[in-house]
Queue: 2 jobs
Job 1
Amino acid sequence: MRTTHTIDVSGVPLGRVATRIATLLRGKHKPEFEPHLDRGDAVHVIGIKNIKLTGRKVSQKVYHSYSGYPGGLKTKKLSHIMDAKPGEALSRAVYQMLPPTRLRKEMMKRLIIENPS
């Protein structure tokens, strides 16, 4: 049975909350956990605008995306991502913490990040 967990991420470091969310999405907190089955819960995230980023990550951390074509490498700084879509940094962190199997997309569908208005 799936339950919905609501997590307020205001003032919590990005990596700490991402590991907690990945554990809930995968279902590792349940006694009936099996790695080949998707028995995780849904996670609703609020307060993403006030997430804590430690050190100089805001100015130095860079995300890359590559299209596969020559000259197709695009880079974005974390500061630009946090201004445009603050939930994208959290969803990327959680996505990379989940196992690279067929179940990862289904787990990510249960992550709901509430955008600030």
Job 2
Amino acid sequence: MTHPRLPESDTEELPQELLELGRRISALTGSQQPDLQLAFGRVVDSVRRRRRILSLVQEALSQLRLDIKYLMFDLEMTRKERDELKRQLDEL
């Protein structure tokens, strides 16, 4: 009996097609199977790395959106303060 190459918790983040490819490679016999396993491992690592990068980019974009909202609020308040001070000066 062969053990799955990927732990169950890791398989949740991988596309089903990639998991199927891993199962088929594991079922192979012959001299090419180790080479294919190695190449498959590199592909899996690449997919995980890209997912992590995508997650980091999404988090950064969310933070940027929030920062922009705060800056827009600050700008609006600064303009209101400026207009109020200008009005007060004009009354003198």
